[in-house]
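Bumping my old thread because nobody answered last time. Still need a sequence for this structure:
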C-alpha cells in the first residue's frame, strides 16, 4: 500500500496469481525463502526489512504489530492524512480524541450492563 502497488501488480511481478498472494498475506500458505527474496527485490528493501518487528509482535497480540494495524480498514488513509497535518497541537488533539473514543466492544459491554 505504501508503494501504491496493488496485490495484482505484486502477484504479476512475482509470477503468481492474486489468490496465491492473498494466501501468503493471510498466512494460509508459507512464503519460501526464494520467493521472499524476490518480494524484497520488488519492494527494493533488504529481506530483513520484511521481518522488522517480528520479536516484538511475537511477544504481543498478533493484531498489535504495526503492520497488522496498518492493514486494518482506513488505517493507512488515517495515517496519511494525519502525517499531512503541520500543527502539532492539532495532531495532539486528534490523537487524544481518538484514544478516548470507546471501542465498539467496550460500548456493547456498557450497554449490556444497563
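Sorry it took so long. Here it is:
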Amino acid at each position: 500500500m505504501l508503494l501504491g502497488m496493488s496485490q495484482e501488480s505484486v502477484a504479476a511481478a512475482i509470477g503468481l496469481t492474486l489468490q496465491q498472494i492473498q494466501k501468503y498475506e493471510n498466512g494460509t500458505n508459507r512464503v519460501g525463502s526464494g520467493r521472499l527474496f524476490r518480494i524484497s527485490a520488488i519492494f527494493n528493501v533488504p529481506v530483513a526489512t520484511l521481518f522488522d518487528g517480528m520479536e516484538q509482535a511475537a511477544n504481543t497480540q498478533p493484531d498489535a504489530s504495526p503492520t497488522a494495524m496498518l492493514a486494518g480498514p482506513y488505517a493507512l488513509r488515517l495515517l496519511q492524512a494525519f502525517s499531512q497535518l503541520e500543527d502539532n497541537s492539532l495532531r495532539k488533539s486528534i490523537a487524544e480524541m481518538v484514544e478516548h473514543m470507546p471501542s465498539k466492544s467496550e460500548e456493547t459491554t456498557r450497554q449490556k450492563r444497563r
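The chain has a mean pLDDT of 80. Let me know if any region looks off to you.
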